[in-house]
Amino acid sequence: MEYQIDTSTTDLQLFKDNVLASQILVSKNAAEEKTLLDINSLNIEKSDVILHAFDWPYAYVTANAKEIAELGYRSVLVSPAMKSFVHKDGTAWWQRYQPQDYRVIENQLGNTQDFSEMIKALEEQGVRVYVDVVFNHMANEAYRRKDLQYPCAMDIKTYNDNKEKYQPQTLFGDLSEPLFHEEHFVDAFEIKDWKNTWEVQNGRITGGAEDPGLPKLKVCDYVIEQQQNYLKALKKMGVQGFRIDAAKHMTIEHLQRIWTKDITENMHIFGEIITDGGATKEEYELFLKPYIEQTELGAYDFPLFNTLFQALQKDGDMKSLANPYSVGQALFNFRATTFAITHDIPNNDTFKSLILKEQDEWLAYSYILGRDGGVPLVYTDLNPSKILTSNGIPRWTEAWKDPRMAKMIMFHNYAHGETMRSMLANKDTLVFARGIKGIVAINKSDSKVVVDIQWHKDMRNILTDCQYKIEADTLTLSIDRKSCLLLV
Fold it and tell me: Active site residue: 141, 245, 381, 458, which one?
């Protein structure tokens, strides 16, 4: 079954008038005959796509640096580069989010030297390093001790007994002394009301009544100084961006005092504030709106993600994706980090209901990487969730270098900065232009869709190499069920 849609543009003449100024490369005899774009000749520069190499060992990132760059990624976001629990048999991913010390990088992913070598390898390829930072709390070590000294006395002794090992690994400070003491933490209580801003930003994140939770750091001069010392040390090593973990749990005062101009200058910084939608949604109003209004930091675009997730459901409406910012369902472009999935979604039971179906996730990426606005983040992991594809392979382990992803990144980098203009939007179908360089067409329905649009030249779908020839200023697009076109 298929159905046909007829649509037209209102500014076809503008397109025609600007064809000569287009950066689209055509053959020398284009004036004599219509020719199709040679994809291999595209003048593509890496733009801004982030690879979220979630829980990748630093050495594994180093080993893949060349391929990461060749695929068009501009930045790599790695898991927290701090001291956290290490075990000979390995540790769970969430251990990386329970800091023991900022002054040394020593965790299951590697040490300071491994981290430094990773930065150098990526720099050689023109790829930036972003780091996930955890400033809300320290590690829950109630199972082994009652005090709130970080690092613990045993770790301090290890430092002192192995100075030749740890001195070269030190980022800043004096390892013979603890970093934090009891007075640097707020009084302990469990967060119970997750819609109470004060409670969420002053209580402990716990696993339930029996769990003492993560010790919450106090907002004071000393804590701020240590956290800034850590950020400055990473910047000196070559880090160029930070993701703020658990930003929802940090007060605006804490965020404002840490992220001063000397820290943020020439850096890309974005916070994790999980909400169930955009403007008018309670979580947005309580947490994300104050963050956006009272800081200059970027954020994960959860409003857009929720809009995208709902649009791709069977009863969803693709029209909501034509201009979501205009109705408060997406963050302003330069503040947004956009995504189809984050590490919390497959790895926390609370959020697993937000995992898109495989086909729908690829449609989500075609939108995220096809649209104008925000910095796209592509998620990959080493399968901590144990979730498999329909073919029985780890779902996100190879996604970062899947040929479809590579071509979507190619399109994003090629069309980067070109204006997004809606050409068709209905319940199941979305078609938009990227300046005069490209067209994105998405069909979420279970039927093939045929769309007629006015356009100015022949096009090619870079996903399949299928050619579309223009006839009388009309381009007829055939979009298979649950599929997309990225035309150049």
Answer: 245
